[in-house]
Design a protein that fits this description.
The protein is elongated. Helix content is 72%, strand content 0%. Helix 2 packs antiparallel against helix 6. The protein is mainly α.
Length: 223
């Protein structure tokens, strides 16, 4: 089947239809991103340390998880927590009684003091609950998943961020590359393959960085 050589109005109309669809789609995406921006702006307090707990938080389970993490650092009582952090005993007691639902300012004070006074212990104490490898990682996740924090918007924000990068990336492709992608059976499959390659490259980069750091430490130790 040969293409028609003569110019036809259908060619113009086809491109206008494609551009019209793009305009509608980009306007919709822009509106969604703006809505996400506005929602996030009004969702969290200016001082993130004062975030309130989520209504859906499993308070009983999350309270127990918090206490177990501290026990991994041999913090069994409010006195233990006060001795380690320097925070007053009443505040420590209130936080341990109900870590999720206690006064936000008290919880923030204790967590901040733990970071400042026991940072090495936080990140050096093994704790393999909830996919964590140490107490610090667990508390990092605990704080973000149980309270009204920007974490609740992170998945949406990353989607919009990637979409904006893809818009710019497509502009740098050759005409042949663009045509191939437009003809692809599934762009989702193409993106998943690209993501798999990116993960593998990141893994190699991390391994290379760790190998270099270990070699540097060994070199320093041998001096």
């Amino acid at each position: 089947m040969y293409p028609i050589i003569s110019l036809r109005n259908e060619e113009r109309e086809a491109l206008l239809d494609a551009l019209s669809m793009c305009v509608d789609y980009l306007r919709e995406e822009t509106a969604l991103a703006v809505q996400c921006f506005d929602d996030l702006s009004g969702y969290c307090p200016d001082d993130l340390g004062l975030c309130e707990p989520l209504e859906c938080a499993n308070k009983e389970g999350e309270n127990a998880a918090f206490l177990m993490a501290l026990e991994a650092m041999e913090i069994m009582t409010a006195q233990d927590l006060a001795d380690l952090t320097g925070v007053d005993l009443v505040t420590c007691s209130d936080v341990l009684i109900n870590p999720v639902a206690c006064e936000a300012e008290k919880r923030a004070q204790v967590i901040r003091a733990l970071e400042e006074k026991a940072g090495d212990d936080l990140w050096g104490t093994p704790y393999h609950i909830g996919g964590s490898d140490c107490v610090g990682h667990f508390l990092y996740s605990w704080v973000r998943r149980n309270f009204k924090t920007p974490y609740q918007f992170e998945p949406q924000a990353k989607v919009f961020e990637l979409k904006s990068y893809l818009v710019g990336a497509v502009g740098s492709l050759s005409n042949d590359d663009i045509e191939s992608l437009l003809q692809a059976v599934s762009l989702v499959s193409v993106l998943k393959d690209a993501a798999a390659l990116a993960r593998e490259q990141r893994r190699r980069d991390i391994e290379a960085a760790e190998t270099f750091a270990a070699a540097a430490r060994a070199a320093c130790a041998s001096r």
